[in-house]
Amino acid sequence: MIDVCCAIIVNDEQQVLVAQRSAVMRLPLKMEFPGGKLEPGESPEAALVREIQEELNLHILPVEALPVHEHQYPDFAIRLMPFICKLQSGAIELREHAAVHWLEAPQLSGCDWAEADIPVVHDYLFTLTN
């Protein structure tokens, strides 16, 4: 089981950043919330701040943890730890992903998500209605 954290990055306009995996990554061209693997001894929040800086050149502040989800793909399993994050600063640089998009919350359901991210989308949308 691979421990992975992901960021639901929200900007000042309440749009959410979604990233498209590159053609050479596992799950090519699927949409995901950006993030990455935890290093030994690293907290999910610290890993997320580091990963988003490395992958996208953005500075974020994790503000709320969402439920953890485990997902079994055919050849690997992940434990996905999502956090709603506030965008602090930075200009997006695509260092791993094919593309990123700022979307309004209702648009999230129409994306071609990596399977592990689908329950995270539902959890995030649920937080907006309660």
The number of helical runs is 2
What is the fold-level CATH name, i.e. the topology? Nucleoside Triphosphate Pyrophosphohydrolase
What string gives the helices and strands in order?
EEEEHEEEEH
CATH architecture: Alpha-Beta Complex
**What are the segments in which pLDDT stays under 50 over at least 5 consecutive residues?**
none
Percentage beta strand: 35-45%
Query: How many beta-strand runs?
Result: 8
The radius of gyration computed from the alpha-carbon positions, rounded to a whole number of angstroms, is: 13 Å
Distance between the termini: 32 Å
Class derived from helix and strand content: alpha+beta
Question: Given the C-alpha coordinates, what overall shape results?
Answer: globular
Just give the CATH class: Alpha Beta
CATH superfamily, called what? Nucleoside Triphosphate Pyrophosphohydrolase
Helix content: 10-25%
Number of domains: 1
- Main sheet makeup: 5 strands, mixed
* Arithmetic mean pLDDT: 94
Fold and architecture overview:
The protein has about 130 residues and is an alpha+beta fold. The protein has a single domain (about 1-130), classed as Alpha-Beta Complex (Nucleoside Triphosphate Pyrophosphohydrolase), CATH 3.90.79. Helix content is about 20%, strand content about 40%. It is built from two helices and eight strands; from the N terminus they run E-E-E-E-H-E-E-E-E-H. The chain has helices at about 45-55, 120-130; strands at about 1-10, 15-20, 30, 35, 60-65, 70, 75-90, 100-105. The strands form two sheets. Strands 1, 4, 5, 6 and 7 form a five-stranded mixed beta sheet that branches. It has a three-stranded antiparallel beta sheet with strand order 3-2-8, with no helix packed on it. Strand 6 and strand 7 (about 75-90) form a beta hairpin. The radius of gyration is 13 Å and the shape is globular. It starts with a strand and ends with a helix. The model has no long low-confidence stretch (mean pLDDT about 95).
